[in-house]
Amino acid sequence: MSYIDISKLDRLFDECKESMIVMHESGQIQKMNQEAAQLLSWNHMVEQLMLDEMSSATWDAFMKQVKYSGIAFCNVNIIVENNTISTSAFGCYFEKEQSIIVWLSPNFNEDELFTKDILCSIIDCACYDAILSDKQGYIIGMTQGALEILGYKNEQTYEQLLYDLGFSKQQIFEYLENIDHSSTGTIIFERSIAEKAMTYELTALAISSTNIIVTIFKEVTAEIKDTHLEEEKILSNLNELVATIVHEIRNPMTSLKGFLELLKLNMSEDGKQYFSIIDAEFERLELILEDFLYLSKPPKYAMEEISLVEAIQQIVDLMQPQAIQSNILLMLQYSLVDEFKMLGNEVRLKQLLINVIKNAIEVMPLGGTITIALGYNVEGNIELTIKDEGYGMSEETMQGLFTPFFTTKKQGSGLGLPLVKKIIEEHNGDINVWSKEGIGTEFTFTIPVDPYKYVMNIPLHESISLT
Predict the structure, then answer these.
(1) How many domains is the chain partitioned into structurally?
(2) Domain boundary at 224, 248, 273, which?
(3) CA distance 433 to 211
(4) So what's the pLDDT on residue 111?
(5) Are the C-beta atoms of 30 and 99 separated by less than 8 Å?
(6) Helices 416-426 & 269-296, crossing angle to 10 degrees?
(7) Is 86 a member of any domain?
(8) 29 and 61: one domain?
(9) Does residue 298 have a pLDDT over 60?
(10) Could you tell me if residue 175 is left (phi over 0), alpha (psi between -120 and 50 degrees) or otherwise beta?
(11) Among the three residues 273, 296, 319, which one is the final residue of a domain in this structure?
């Protein structure tokens, strides 16, 4: 938790010739230096910044981001005595005081934009551990706390530093690409300090129109531990509940199926037709019960060498009639020279494919193309991508994507994607989901060729992205 070092803040306000404001997280101005007072023609009757209509939404997003990640940057137009001042703003959040220090640089003047020394001073006031780097990847500044956490060596680049922390090349590439595209990125890592395991959240912010990336550290060991304990408790309770429900349902099901077999002996042909429908529904109910049990206590499945190309081709052939009825083309893309041999469980991987492709078909009522692509990433692991042209998903839907029983379908069980997650966990793989409303959704599965040799995590919150 960050807090304001008052002595450092007062010194910064006295010595800095740039415009500085301290405001409550509600937006109410609490304090400003002389430069800011002159820039804004401030008097004590003015409690908040006045913004033009276009900048209001930008400022709201800025305030949300600074409270969430600790730092934020934006460009806004401030109205001062009927005049508009175009201003860049860098903010740093102090959670304990629920306050934000905002550094204003007027006129979007690149020559007068934020400098390394002032950035360091603001971060120092907030008592954050931080790194300053340029967009070429060279580290140009670091707090003492960050030095102690990282064990930094002068010759290291930002990318090398992340690699030394244990991140794969693919994870680093996605993290840096996210910073480049959206100006922000977050990644979590563990570090042993004084023989104690610590978990840190690393948040990077690229300040536009400059060559500087600010990266701050937040120690989240307790939060992560509490989250894991809560998840384990919920899962334990869920396991017991599911086992009880399945047991109670199966007993009357067994009796009903026995009596139906007896009734079938004396049924007419029309009755047998209805019986076949009832029997099919019993089979579907049995499959749902098996899914319940699998989610609560997944069995150990044998791994054997399989050809992922052959498994996918079989599922494409199986799903083709349903796709054709919906005016959908299933397109499989892969290099003909690769068989994509791997150690895995073919039955479980086929179930994963069926669940994802079936979902894709259901969100494309107007037809289109579902693309299934296979390739290898820089780590030598298999990447399977399934892309549809459906509705896409909202941020709220994305957050509940892999939660058991969460569904947007009228008759959905909410177990399909949690099962997909379980299957990827069995293969020590990784899931990345991209979605945009009105455009479609893309699932990318990274699967180690040998799940016992390459072990990867599933940081779903980090890998899920909305653009």
Answers:
(1) 3
(2) 224
(3) 30
(4) 46
(5) yes
(6) 50
(7) yes
(8) yes
(9) no
(10) alpha
(11) 296
Asked if 107 contacts 86 with a C-beta cutoff of 8 angstroms, the reply is yes
In contact, 363 and 408? CB cutoff 8 Å: no
Integer Cα distance of 83 and 77 in angstroms = 10
Mean confidence (pLDDT) of the chain: 77
> Is 131 found in the same domain as 62?
yes
409 occurs within a structural domain: yes
* Lowest-confidence segment of 70-74, 228-232, 372-376, 437-441 by average pLDDT: 228-232
**Structural domain boundaries, residue 77:** 6-224
pLDDT band at 467 (very low <50, low <70, confident <90, very high): very low
Are 210 and 114 in contact by the 8 Å Cβ rule? The answer is yes
pLDDT computed for residue 406 by the predictor: 63
Which pLDDT does position 387 carry in this prediction?
Answer: 94
Q: Is position 1 within any domain?
A: no
CA 97 from chain centre, in angstroms, equals 29
Residue 80 burial by Cβ neighbours in a 10 Å radius (0-12, 13-18, 19+): middle
Q: Which of 321, 340, 249, 330 is nearest to 292 (CA)?
A: 249
- Judged on CB neighbours under 10 Å (0-12, 13-18, 19+), 447 is buried
State residue 147 phi and psi, 5-degree precision: -60, -45
Specify whether 104 is located in the same domain as 143. Answer: yes
Strands annotated E in 160-293:
184-193, 196-206, 212-219
